[in-house]
Design a protein that fits this description.
Belongs to the GMC oxidoreductase family. The chain is of the alpha/beta class. The chain is 26% helix and 19% strand.
């Protein structure tokens, strides 16, 4: 029998960016919020001198323990899915702050085209431009509606950036100026300009100068140490939940953070969701936390898994195409090209989001009439700081061991640069999430099963974008350029990109989406699901800025829901008294 606690207004499952934004906004208003986090609480000082690449990058110190909770993976429905035993294609963060602590800091607004991709593509290119095997759809919200929330997120994080020459005109400047333009970035920028492109600095939450956000939280200036991705920032210079939204929530006195609380089910009693069931990882006791509103804000995979375990919504069936929970799973694919040069570059220092980017081949900024794909990619060269294990590049044909390897890797460490792209991935009918019929987690519950493979659209876009990246590297003066290649089938183990989306997608139609544009479930009006899992497709940018904007909007929706219910309850009490 689970221990039952006193009811709270709101319970938030997962304290990454989405969950901490909701917790901060609602607790500031005066709602009582309980935040449940599976991992431990970490603060800036916990990452002092934590420059251990083997521990954090190879050993995945900040990620979910796959020996206890993993997922299964297969390429197609006629294969048996097998458990993922080590990280590769994506990362599932743990501890307070989640992926918002170990991210690089690239902070984008998805483009207006993304939010209306189906209707705008049909209008410009015709309904038959993309096969109906690709389950693209509009998001049920427009860019213009999200602008105020993008702005709130950027001000919370102190984002450093400049106007995108090919993007929507900003209503106001970024809160802080762009990061420093290094000699490497200047060369890349000039090569892009010679080719007629429109380069600009990547918008960054590794910020350029000390900044105090509207809630009074201080974010420090980036020191360009080069330890961002997969690391916590020892300087407090990377905007994250542990330096912004979580301290804000705590200061209200209306927020309670509980760590070591692994939520395993959303509880439904007498036809109504009444709270969540979690396991206390210290005592192994089951605990029921009642709440008026349940907010699910964990990793994309865990959001979907929790709904499926709790039997909320209708699971997606790729054969009948009915149901939406698990639908439209996408993973970012990153075409890249490495250039080898006859000159040396000093790229040891850097920052996760320090880079030059072009949008000339992203969104619908170029004509797709004669192309067999839509959308595109943002193409960048980033100076993130070179590290000796993960970024030990050698030219093709060199063995990965021995004297030759040592010689060539030492040379290439300062004489090679890699440019990459964040590329569109469209949802496909047979790329989806479901529960595995065979494998279970530590609690005896089915693991989440990923069914995913590369598509012809992926290959067409990758080939086109890869050619553009190669051209830029050649213009920079590379003596040899090596492009990335796609395998015959997607392999989950080589390191790809951890920007995965879909599974609890948003939309305007309850028949084709899980949540509305406030991220409120169509089937359960007191359940809100927030995160990358809401995206109906993966755009040409990192998703975090858009997740943040959606979270701010969802917080408004939750407040409206709570106030409406209180007014109804108050009216009922008055009627009863009369």
């Amino acid at each position: 029998m689970a221990k039952r606690l006193d009811k709270t207004d709101v319970v938030v499952v997962g304290l990454g960016w989405a969950g901490s934004i909701v917790a901060a906004e609602l607790s500031k208003i005066g709602h009582n919020v309980v935040g449940l986090e599976r991992g431990k609480e970490k603060k800036t000082e916990d990452y002092l001198t934590a420059h251990d690449e083997y521990r954090y990058v190879i050993g995945h110190e900040m990620m979910q323990d796959l020996s206890r909770e993993t997922l299964t993976y297969r390429n197609s429905t006629d294969e048996e899915a097998l458990p993922m035993r080590r990280y590769g294609a994506f990362l599932i963060g743990t501890d307070v702050g989640g992926g918002g602590v170990h991210w690089n800091g690239d902070t984008w607004r998805y483009h207006p085209y993304d939010f209306e991709i189906k209707s705008q593509t049909d209008e410009k290119y015709g309904a038959d431009k993309i096969s109906d095997e690709y389950t693209i759809q509009d998001w049920g919200i427009t860019y213009e509606e999200l602008v105020p929330y993008f702005s709130k997120y950027e001000k919370n994080s102190g984002v450093s950036g400049e106007q995108n020459p090919l993007g929507p005109e900003r209503e106001e400047s970024y809160p802080t100026p762009p990061l420093k333009e290094t000699p490497v970035l200047t060369e890349y920028k000039e090569a892009c300009e010679r080719l007629g492109y429109h380069p600009f600095m990547v918008p960054a939450s590794t910020i350029s100068q000390q900044y105090v956000n509207p809630d009074g939280q201080t974010i420090n200036a980036c020191q360009y140490c080069g330890f961002c991705e997969k690391f916590g920032c020892e300087w407090g210079a990377k905007a994250s939940p542990i330096v912004t939204t979580i301290p804000t929530a705590k200061e209200t006195g209306n927020f309670e953070l509980r760590t070591g609380a692994n939520v395993v089910e959303i509880v439904k009693e007498d036809g109504k969701v009444t709270g969540v069931l979690y396991v206390d990882l210290l005592t192994q006791e089951e605990v029921m936390q009642p709440a008026d509103v349940v907010v699910v804000t964990s990793h994309t995979t865990n959001n979907t898994k929790l709904l499926l375990h709790s039997k909320l919504g209708t699971p997606y069936d790729p054969e009948s195409r009915e149901g939406s929970v698990g639908k439209n799973y996408c993973l970012h694919i990153t075409p890249s090209a490495t250039g080898f040069f006859d000159k040396e570059y000093n790229t040891v220092t850097g920052a996760g989001a320090l880079g030059i980017v072009i949008d000339d081949f992203n969104n619908d900024n170029f004509d797709h009439t004669d192309l067999d794909f839509i959308h595109g990619a943002s193409i960048a060269l980033k100076q993130t700081g070179k590290r000796p294990i993960e970024q030990n590049t050698v030219p093709p044909g060199v063995k990965n061991w021995g004297a030759e390897f040592k010689k060539e890797s030492i040379k290439a460490f300062t004489q090679s640069l890699t440019s990459h792209a964040q590329m569109i991935t469209l949802p496909h009918r047979y790329n989806y999430l479901s529960l595995d019929p065979t494998y279970k987690d530590d609690y005896g519950r089915p693991l989440l099963r990923v069914t995913y493979d590369l598509t012809e659209h992926d290959r067409a876009a990758h080939e086109f974008i890869g050619g553009k990246i190669e051209g830029i590297m050649e213009e920079m003066g590379a003596t040899q350029v090596v492009r990335s290649e796609l395998p015959d089938h997607f392999d989950i183990y080589p390191a790809h990109n951890d920007h995965i989306v879909g599974g609890t997608i948003m939309g305007a139609d309850p028949e084709t989406s899980v949540v509305n544009n406030y991220l409120q479930m169509w089937d359960e009006d007191n359940v809100f699901v927030i995160g990358g899992s809401n995206f109906p497709h993966n755009g040409g940018y990192n998703p975090t800025g858009t997740v943040g904007a959606l979270a701010y909007r969802a917080a408004e929706g939750i407040d409206m829901y709570l106030e409406d219910n209180r007014q109804l309850a108050s009216a009922g009490e008055v009627a009863g008294a009369n």
